[in-house]
Amino acid sequence: MAARSALSRIDLRGRQLTAGELRRLLPRAPLDVTTAARIVRPLIDDVRERGATAALAATARLDGVRPDRLRVPAAALRAALAGLDPALRAALEESARRARLVHRAQLRDDVRVEVGGGTVTQRWLPVGRAGLYVPGGLVPYPSSVVMNAVPAQEAGVSEVAVASPPQREYGGLPHPVVLAACQLLGVTEVYAVGGAQAIALLAYGSTAAQGEAVEPVDVVTGPGNVYVAAAKRLVRGVAGTDGEAGPTEIAILADDSADSAHVAADLISQAEHDALAACLLITDSEPLLDKVQGELAAQVAAARHRDRIAAALAGQSAAVLVGDVSAGIRVADAWAAEHLEVITRDADAVAARVRNAGAVFAGPWSPVTLGDYLAGSNHVLPTGGTARFTGGLSVQAFQKMVQVVSYGQQALAGAAASIDALGAAENLPAHVAAVRARIPR
User: Fold this and answer.
1) 33-244: CATH homologous superfamily?
2) Which residues make beta-bridge pairs with 126?
3) For 132, which DSSP code?
């Protein structure tokens, strides 16, 4: 097991590589969304045309289970919450409480700006209806209910619907802990459907004539596999979407002050998600790297999901040796991890220099697991290097800016001559005429 769990080494000491060269060199699980989109497009089109009937057929074909109906009965939601372990309920309540504190602080105030005698007011308004996807592949994710529902609710969304895959062992319903989390948070519209068909159903909706009535949503969010990511790409424009989340990732930037047992445990914590999880240790300390390799051998051997973990560590994962912490930051920024831990001296100061990461965890007492469940931050984060240009799920995913323009006659008159010139330059005389009908020359 020691050999299988060892990280391959990439020695960058003394090498000066560009960000592009680093991205090409560093390992990462492939996420071929374009190919996946070609595969799922017929399914998406079928759900658009036949609604719930097509979604049920796809679920039976792909998941091997066909629910009696897609909408989860209210009684099943209530029963799931009633049967929830009290300790788990308390943990979910605390997770939601902390998440609400953080996400409520993300709300933006309307801004009114005076311009040329008139005003432009930027208003932030919630979408009317949101669809939240909660995966249910290898393990159930009640925490993902919290991470999707809380920002939607804090944004002011009035209607929230959740889709999660049906489970054969639970009579074609989503996992009971997912249902319990929905009920706990007041989300009572839940559908037993997963994968690309769930994204299509949320985006396009369904009529009673198509098997079951489902109102289309304005925004779809939530993590999933490559086919879920592809489905989001295909429905974008019909509904808003968040990022295209792929297999989970962790990078750890560490110096010789880091505890090797902690570093190994944190790498393993993300590797247990998926054999395609990517783990990158970035360090300027070769002795630390050697100790981490030894810890990985011991800890992986004792892990419940050891085969999955070993596959991830031996696959698209590596240890990168750098000359110093500044070089390590350049590597971390190039890789743009979903999760980045900074376990160095002056960790807060080092973390403040990082530009590209979905979430940064500063210091030895801020493991990624804390962010997965209880930090208050959101765990729906960009993967595949997309943290270079996008961020994690927030209330802004469920809001839109509406600009309100209010000019009086005098203010419009002050703008008229410039509009004359701009309209003439663009050969749009009717634009000019719309102003001159009000403000004659």
Assistant:
1) Nitrogenase molybdenum iron protein domain (3.40.50.1980)
2) 399
3) E
User: 2-30+246-375 belongs to which CATH class?
Assistant: alpha beta
Listed in sequence order, the DSSP H helices in 303-408 are 306-314, 325-335, 347-352, 368-373
Tell which phi-psi region holds residue 144, choosing left (phi > 0), alpha (psi between -120 and 50) or beta: alpha
Burial grade of 34 (CB within 10 A; 0-12, 13-18, 19 or more): exposed
Which residues, listed in sequence order, are joined to residue 119 by a DSSP beta bridge? 114, 406
Identify whether the C-beta of residue 246 lies closer than 8 Å to the C-beta of residue 283: no
**pLDDT tens for each residue of 400-422:** 999 999 999 999 999 999 999 99
Active-site residue numbers? 338-339
The pLDDT tens digits for 106-154 are 999 999 999 999 999 999 999 999 999 999 876 788 999 999 999 999 9
Q: Do 2-30+246-375 and 33-244 fold alike per CATH?
A: yes
Q: How many helices and strands in the chain, by DSSP H and E?
A: 17, 14
Instruction: Provide the b/e sequence for 110-136 (b: ≥16 CB within 10 Å).
Output: eeeeeeeebeeeeebebbebbbbbbbb
**E strand or H helix at 316, and its extent?**
none
First vs last C-alpha separation in the chain: 84
Q: Where are the domains of the chain?
A: 2-30+246-375, 33-244, 407-436
Structure tokens given for 251 = 């990078």
Strand partners, 111: 122
Contact 295, 306 (CB under 8 A): no
Beta bridge partners of 16: none
CB-based contact 132:152 (threshold 8 Å): yes
Q: How far apart are CA 143 and CA 381, in angstroms?
A: 14
